[in-house]
Amino acid sequence: MAKVAVKLVSWDEIADWARDLSSKILESGWRPDVVMAIARGGYVPARLVCDNLGVMDLVSVQVVHWPSTAQAIERAFIKHEAKVDSLAGKRVLVIDDIVDTGDSISLAKEYAEKAGAGEVRSAALQWISTVAKFKPDYYSINVTDWKWFVYPWNVTEDVTNFMKRIIMEEGASKNRWGFTELVSKMREWYGDEIMKVPLSYISKALINLEQMGLIERSSNGAEYVVKGK
Ligand code: AMP
Q: pTM of the prediction?
């Protein structure tokens, strides 16, 4: 059994879900004047919804709640405010990729309301209905089994964080890793699904970990040595 359930999401799924989400917004008869993307996950969904609905005004606010893959901090906070002249009286749609606890989207909604928006609605491609404290007005997929979704714009970052976690948590007993050993440990922790990630992403993640100073190549280049061990 994997330690963390993971699902890789394709670009085709993203396009389908965004189209479905946009149809639901259109069918409701409500049309936003402004779309507010929640950075970073909401960027691509928000842009696709703008395209589908013909909305020209797209702004963004950055909320941080899960600074490292599949590891949340206690309280979501606004890292960067929206740069916007005025939301006064406007219909604003805040968009994210997924509503998990719901803290990020409810904070962004509150932010838009405080900024003077006339009416604020919320939307996400996915809503984890079994854990979320907040239900978006619009969503495409109702997720009932919690998983970490590896979105196509996030693969390198997620794989880097997955490997970092393995190296840190297994560090007490192991400080040298071969490439295939690391890959099979990833499979053990994150399940067969993670094996769908092309090997080039795994190699890039290892370069990232070297650049972060966490690992270095052994002198013969065959292994990765955990630094400081
Ligand atoms: P939350 O504040 O818990 O609703 O988390 C929302 C943000 O964290 C989203 O914008 C996602 O980018 C990220 N996130 C949270 N949970 C997941 C998950 N299960 N899979 C992928 N991304 C997630």
A: 0.94
